[in-house]
Fold:
Amino acid sequence: MNWKTLKEARGKLAAEQGTIIKDWGGRIHIALVYPGSYSLGMSNLGFQTIYGFLNQHDRIVCERAFYDGCEPVSLESQRPLTDFDILAFSFSYELDYFNAARLLESSSIPVLASDRGKHHPLLIAGGPAVMANPEPMAPLLDCFAIGEGEAILPQMMQVILDNIELPRHKLLRELSALPGVYVPTMADLPVACQWAPNLSDFPTGSVVLTPDTEFGDLYLVEIARGCSRGCRFCLAGYHFGPMRHRPLENLLEQARQGLRYRKRLGLVSAAITDHPQIDELAIGLRRMGAEFSVSSLRIKPLSDALLKGLAESGTRTISLAPEAGSQRMREVVKKAISEDDILRAVDQVAGHGFKQLKLYFMIGLPAETEDDIMDIVNMALATKDILDRHRSGTRLTLNIALFVPKAGTPFQWLPMAAGDVLSRRLSLIKKGLSHKGIAVKADSIEWSLVQGTLARGNSMMGQVIASMPRTSLSAWRKAVEGAGLDPDLIHREIPRGEQLPWWKIDSGVRTEYLRSELEGALGDERDGH
Structure:
């Protein structure tokens, strides 16, 4: 380990509050790995929650590790990852798979599970990406937690504690018998996704506070989990179980605890304004002197009490997600809002004097045409007019994501649009808005296509990842071709009767329902209506 790595680790630790340091004697050693930068990992509330949960156990030492291209070591003790019994990866996005492979290489740990021996750490993984489809990482990892950590980890850790001295294959056999644990080499299929039925049993908030993240001035509090909206492209609505809200009194008590560390709270949920007591929560937080912010807001319903509280808290930016510019496309994706709803929400936001409004749109959606793209431009212009009427100088930014078909959603069978089509549509948006001072930010088209290939990939993708000497588009293309795979695989529509790579995972949503939702989205379009 070089001096720079040691110095950087100690510098990060010195700025933290809540770091958990344990003696290594007589304990199992787990490195919780976020395959990305420290800043991104420490902004992830799920990552922090697992860190706190594992360290509650007296017989476990859990330390954190990140990957930013440098030599990977644990943050707390600056030990190499080969010193740990277990590496536990958290995968939020498919593109993180490349960093995981590079991290293993940098740690002198064989990338493929079949090449590792008993002296190497056990590799496990969880997180949204592998919950939906673990197959691309199946050749690299020993086992996967399919579902929410609170529902799986207690039994999983007890089995590991009781059997850590067993040969690797016997320990994995014990783990494979647990609900929600997928061991690729010996799984009893399908593996059912697990959810925590009562969130009140598991308060979820910041464990370690650090200024070196996007949310450095916030104490994060999860107010709900799941989503009942059923947007047909959305992973969260189909893999995170039923909508569950935390009780108001629990949230206010957690807020009181958080205010001991930060004056600002960050409210976290896939659907903030769907909480049945969101008005009472906003009012209660302001009464106790708390400032707060949220990641994004639902367009409908949009709580005025929440907007007022955000304005009083000094929030400068509000984010809304129309997703599509035309009513036709919103109906295709099952976004149950009208243009009037969107513009009314913009007017409501503008009335509170925020400095910036961000609108999130998606392009490359099923059945999309260039007329739909121009509707995005027109909606942005109408939004700018509303903002300018209320207050000149309010910034408007469009964030453009590319549609990526996700496993376990109604759109899982559908292809991604060709790169040149996506490039042309993105150019139409930029050209239509550049002269109006509206900023347009967009995902990389090339890397979004790679993400889509991984999201729908099988175990051959793991071989591709392992064979890449570095993370680059050229290395990806060469590895795909070297494996004899079709580089345009993501542009293929999967026949409804074809077995999907992720059939081994039972998300709790019946395939028949997903098919009916797909037909509901595209039936009229394909009939020419």
